[in-house]
Amino acid sequence: MGRTQRQRRRHSRPAADTQLDTLHVLYKQLHSLGWRNETQLSAFSFSQTGRGLCSKTQCFRAGDELIRLPAGCLISIATLESDEEFKALFDPDLFDKDSRISFQALIACYLLHLQHLHEARQESPFAAYLDSLPRSYTTPYFCAVSELQCLPEAILERTVSQNRQIRDCYQVLKSLVGAQHCQCCGQRYCEEIWTLAEYRRAYFAVNSRSVYLSSRQLYTGRSHFQELLSGTNNLALAPFLDLFNHSDTVQTTAELQLLASSKCQDYVLTLDSLAAAQLKPYEQLFISYGALPNLKLLTEYGFYLKRNAHDYFEFSLLDIEQLIAHNKELSAQSYHRNIFKFIREHNLMDQMFVHISEGCSHNLRVVLHLIFKQCAHFPNLLNQIAFGDASQFDDVQPELSYLLTHKINEYQRFVAALEKLPQLTESGTVAHGYLLECLRYLHDFESTHCASNNN
């Protein structure tokens, strides 16, 4: 189920979090680093989202600060650059400009480093935070093979891409530190200590729980890892703050603020807007990860929202090709290959989606029109048509209805296939719920935008 859907509850207060003892240790550690918990935040287990945050005493309105966390509590580029033992594992002379990794991948490696210190020496500086991290993740990446075989191409493409990125980064790390042995236990890194399975979990811990910030505000010195990293290093892990769940009904902003009194910095999260006039004590507090559709939420974070205000359903050119192959009326027609070539060369297959409020996207109408309504196949004529008067693309309603029906039937088959499996993993259960939400969305769009045309 979507983590942030609320139902009426008979009890006015949520249940205490089952990992409360672990979090008490985390509270103390963060307090020692300067966190004062001015908003009296506490972790509880909520019926629809699981673990989340609320305040026992404070009401919240738009404009209120949710949390103010000292920058020293974050695991950021500054943390890695100040950890001499971790830096010593990476010889800059071995860095290869053609084999770089993302900062997300490096932080995942750092989590494994911290975890090993915690287990081998009982001296990890972030032990309480490590104990607060989830033991498993519910993205489709962690579905069983039998479940993956029952999922749509759109999900599989993202999962394959994630797997490739993780494996490539792991191989780079293995080439840099894999032959080294840990001084405290004698085991080899990237073989016995940092296994691929553990690295995958660490990667998704960073993927699903990191925040964005300006790294230049945190670290201005010479970077040991500069030649290893591709892209920016603007990610950080935020202990305790990462217990906030996401909602599409709120807007939040986050920024690093310099304190004039101490010349230190705080990471400040502010509630900009919310659906209600205010939130009362013991009501769950939410933040926004951004205006993200359910497919993004599912594949990156492992959940979805029912009736997500930012959701839309995207189609691919392959969907249209499969529609033609399975529809007798459409398969009886001929389609010139130049049309499909033109669509690909001009990236018209991007942003092909339907939105309940906005209707059918422009690119989807253009592509349906070019394929089903035009006999022309010369590039110059196709160019005039595709980038001409937009009103000419309003004649594709029958083909759009065919496409919706095709996709609904396809997703119904996926759902049925999952339900035939003897047992679903937690990831498979979330994916099953997502598919049902897609079907609801497609049916609602169909009834809103196509019903009058079908009567």
TrEMBL record:
<dbReference type="GO" id="GO:0016279">
    <property type="term" value="F:protein-lysine N-methyltransferase activity"/>
</dbReference>
<dbReference type="InterPro" id="IPR050600">
    <property type="entry name" value="SETD3_SETD6_MTase"/>
</dbReference>
<dbReference type="InterPro" id="IPR046341">
    <property type="entry name" value="SET_dom_sf"/>
</dbReference>
<protein>
    <submittedName>
        <fullName>GH16622</fullName>
    </submittedName>
</protein>
<dbReference type="InterPro" id="IPR044429">
    <property type="entry name" value="SETD4_SET"/>
</dbReference>
